Amino acid sequence: LADGILLERAGLPAVSICTDPFALTARAMAKAYGFPGFDYVSIPHPVASLSEEQIRARVRDMMPDLLRMLGAEGME
Amino acid sequence: VDVADPAITVDAAEVRRAMEYYADRGWTDGLPVVPVTESYLAEFLARTSRAPGDVLLAMPQLNRALTVRLAAINAALAGCRPEYFPVVLAAWESLAADRYPPRGIWQSTTGTAPFLIVNGPVRQRIGLNSQGNVFGSGFRANATIGRAIRLGVLNAFGLRPHELDQATQGTPAKYTFCIGENEEESPWPPLHAEFGLAPSDSAVTAMVIRSCVHIEARHTRVPEQLATDIAGTISRTGALIHETISAAVVLNPEHARLFSRAGWSKDDIKQFLYDHAACSRAELAAAGKEAVSSRTRWRLPADHPDALPLEGGDGPVRVLNSPGAVLVVVAGAGNAGVSAVVETFGPRGGPPPMTRIDSAASAAVSSQA
Question: Which of B23, B78, B111, B213 is packed most tightly, with the most Cβ within 10 A?
Answer without folding.
Answer: B78
